[in-house]
């Protein structure tokens, strides 16, 4: 039997990869606007980086890691998320040093690996675009970074998205809340799912995140973190809300929202799709503030803020909203060669066109003129250049602009000498074109 790709992975085929490239280009453009710079880290790291950085009790570390021992018995893992590795690189390369701009703003894009049960929008190899900001605890950083994520969705034309925010407060607030939450949950211990029973004392906030229906029912009446914020945390959250309002970015507050990763404090957020035909899993992007993480990974105390955006889910959202993705690799020129004698000239033509910075395609199967024009049409060629035996003998080609249907004989000499001029004149202004070539 033929070998198949691993469960929970995908082959990105041409046609589809074109759509991804468009999305990636928009994302990179917006990252430039916000002055985030790309960082690329290894796809595998020490297992310990994630167990420390993401947290032992998180689903990611406790259940979903693709970890392995290498040939020298080192415990390694395929990266399940981007932040821990970026923080590691930030510390290891001493990017906190005085010679680097503060805040230090980076983004990443690439595959992540989690051993999960595959379903719509949930894969074992998936792709994230993420952004991280180091060295600012100004709430404007939180809001700017959330705005950046929203901008990507907006630029792509998504309409049915919403921003949901919450705060986890600082350590003092969270400790107070944690105690209140344990007190609330303990009487329900026997009704809780096994996972939640385990988490009740280790990490009770995670019980709020449980997907178990009975757990959900119980936590619906749980106390709210918003009632346990100390003054610093309440003020911080207020500033975030005010700044979002100043930018006129609509948001909702969900005081039961927590994040699966253990390292967050203060602001956390999710961006969800509420498109009708979108699947059951609606979170496209999630992130927040992580003021303790850089220290946890061995660096100096440095505040941080970031998010991870799932690109598969983003593509699903674009599909759900039926957003047309512009074709960036439309063909400039198709060269129709007729008769075997034109084989050399046709090859020289496509190469010349490509060297002039245009895209070009030709026929290789010695097909009839009709079949070649059909292909040119299918590829969306803007121009078709035809060369047959007669044209070859006369040292010319037929140059046809597909949109207008106008065609003209052009000497091969001119094509080889000035293809870009020929192309631009011919496709824009016939008069100027004629003047230019009548000089010869
Ligand atoms: P979920 O609750 O859906 O499992 P999560 O809390 O594990 O999400 P994060 O770790 O915050 O997700 O990752 C950020 C984003 O990455 C998610 O919002 C989602 O878009 C994407 N993502 C996470 N896990 C997967 C996966 N297995 N397959 C596809 N996309 C994923
Ligand atoms: Mg998950």
From TrEMBL:
<dbReference type="InterPro" id="IPR004516">
    <property type="entry name" value="HisRS/HisZ"/>
</dbReference>
<comment type="subunit">
    <text>Homodimer.</text>
</comment>
<keyword id="KW-0547">Nucleotide-binding</keyword>
<keyword id="KW-0030">Aminoacyl-tRNA synthetase</keyword>
<keyword id="KW-0648">Protein biosynthesis</keyword>
<dbReference type="GO" id="GO:0140096">
    <property type="term" value="F:catalytic activity, acting on a protein"/>
</dbReference>
<dbReference type="InterPro" id="IPR004154">
    <property type="entry name" value="Anticodon-bd"/>
</dbReference>
<dbReference type="Pfam" id="PF13393">
    <property type="entry name" value="tRNA-synt_His"/>
</dbReference>
<dbReference type="GO" id="GO:0005737">
    <property type="term" value="C:cytoplasm"/>
</dbReference>
<keyword id="KW-0436">Ligase</keyword>
<dbReference type="InterPro" id="IPR045864">
    <property type="entry name" value="aa-tRNA-synth_II/BPL/LPL"/>
</dbReference>
<feature type="binding site">
    <location>
        <position position="132"/>
    </location>
    <ligand>
        <name>L-histidine</name>
    </ligand>
</feature>
<dbReference type="GO" id="GO:0004821">
    <property type="term" value="F:histidine-tRNA ligase activity"/>
</dbReference>
<feature type="binding site">
    <location>
        <position position="128"/>
    </location>
    <ligand>
        <name>L-histidine</name>
    </ligand>
</feature>
<dbReference type="GO" id="GO:0005524">
    <property type="term" value="F:ATP binding"/>
</dbReference>
<dbReference type="GO" id="GO:0016740">
    <property type="term" value="F:transferase activity"/>
</dbReference>
<feature type="binding site">
    <location>
        <begin position="263"/>
        <end position="264"/>
    </location>
    <ligand>
        <name>L-histidine</name>
    </ligand>
</feature>
<dbReference type="InterPro" id="IPR036621">
    <property type="entry name" value="Anticodon-bd_dom_sf"/>
</dbReference>
<dbReference type="InterPro" id="IPR033656">
    <property type="entry name" value="HisRS_anticodon"/>
</dbReference>
<feature type="domain" description="Aminoacyl-transfer RNA synthetases class-II family profile">
    <location>
        <begin position="23"/>
        <end position="326"/>
    </location>
</feature>
<dbReference type="InterPro" id="IPR041715">
    <property type="entry name" value="HisRS-like_core"/>
</dbReference>
<feature type="binding site">
    <location>
        <begin position="81"/>
        <end position="83"/>
    </location>
    <ligand>
        <name>L-histidine</name>
    </ligand>
</feature>
<dbReference type="InterPro" id="IPR015807">
    <property type="entry name" value="His-tRNA-ligase"/>
</dbReference>
<dbReference type="InterPro" id="IPR006195">
    <property type="entry name" value="aa-tRNA-synth_II"/>
</dbReference>
<protein>
    <recommendedName>
        <fullName>Histidine--tRNA ligase</fullName>
        <ecNumber>6.1.1.21</ecNumber>
    </recommendedName>
</protein>
<comment type="similarity">
    <text>Belongs to the class-II aminoacyl-tRNA synthetase family.</text>
</comment>
<feature type="binding site">
    <location>
        <position position="114"/>
    </location>
    <ligand>
        <name>L-histidine</name>
    </ligand>
</feature>
<keyword id="KW-0067">ATP-binding</keyword>
<feature type="binding site">
    <location>
        <position position="259"/>
    </location>
    <ligand>
        <name>L-histidine</name>
    </ligand>
</feature>
<dbReference type="GO" id="GO:0006427">
    <property type="term" value="P:histidyl-tRNA aminoacylation"/>
</dbReference>
<keyword id="KW-0963">Cytoplasm</keyword>
<dbReference type="Pfam" id="PF03129">
    <property type="entry name" value="HGTP_anticodon"/>
</dbReference>
């Amino acid at each position: 039997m033929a070998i198949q790709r691993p469960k929970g992975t995908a082959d990105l085929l041409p046609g589809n990869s074109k759509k991804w490239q468009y999305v990636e280009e928009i994302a990179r453009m917006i990252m430039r606007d916000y002055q985030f710079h790309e960082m690329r880290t290894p796809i595998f790291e020490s297992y310990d980086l994630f167990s420390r950085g993401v947290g032992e009790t998180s689903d990611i570390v406790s259940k979903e890691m693709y970890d392995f021992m290498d040939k020298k018995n080192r415990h390694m893992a395929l990266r399940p998320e981007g932040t821990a590795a970026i923080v590691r690189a930030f510390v290891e390369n001493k990017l906190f040093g005085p010679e680097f701009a503060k805040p230090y703003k980076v983004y990443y894009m690439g595959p992540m690996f989690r051993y999960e049960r595959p379903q719509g929008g949930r894969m074992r190899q998936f792709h994230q675009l993420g952004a991280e900001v180091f060295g600012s605890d100004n709430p404007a950083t939180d809001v700017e970074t959330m705005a950046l994520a929203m901008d990507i969705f907006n630029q792509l034309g998504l309409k049915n998205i919403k921003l949901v925010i919450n705060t986890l407060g600082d350590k003092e607030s969270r400790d107070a809340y944690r105690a209140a939450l344990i007190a609330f949950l303990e009487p329900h211990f026997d009704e809780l799912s096994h996972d939640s029973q385990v988490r009740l004392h280790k990490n009770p906030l995670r019980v709020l995140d449980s997907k178990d229906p009975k757990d959900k029912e119980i936590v619906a009446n749980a106390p709210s973190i918003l009632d346990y914020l100390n003054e610093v945390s309440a003020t911080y959250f207020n500033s975030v809300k005010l700044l979002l309002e100043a930018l006129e970015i609509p948001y909702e507050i969900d005081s039961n929202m927590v994040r699966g990763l253990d390292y967050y404090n203060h602001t956390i957020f999710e961006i969800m799709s509420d498109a009708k035909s979108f699947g059951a899993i609606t979170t496209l992007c999630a992130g927040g503030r992580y003021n303790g993480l850089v220290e946890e990974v061995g660096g100096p105390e440095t505040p941080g803020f970031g998010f991870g955006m799932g690109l598969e889910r983003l593509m699903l959202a674009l599909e759900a909203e039926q957003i047309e993705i512009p074709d960036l690799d439309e063909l400039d020129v198709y060269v129709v060669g007729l008769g075997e004698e034109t084989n050399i000239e046709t090859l020289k033509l496509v190469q010349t066109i490509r060297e002039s910075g245009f895209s070009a395609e030709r026929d290789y199967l010695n097909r009839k003129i009709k079949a070649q024009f059909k292909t040119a049409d299918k590829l969306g060629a803007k121009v078709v250049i035809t060369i047959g035996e007669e044209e070859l003998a006369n040292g010319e080609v037929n140059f046809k602009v597909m949109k207008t249907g106008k065609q003209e004989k052009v000497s091969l000499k001119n094509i080889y000498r000035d293809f870009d001029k020929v192309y631009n004149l011919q496709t824009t202004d016939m008069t100027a074109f004629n003047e230019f070539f009548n000089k010869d």
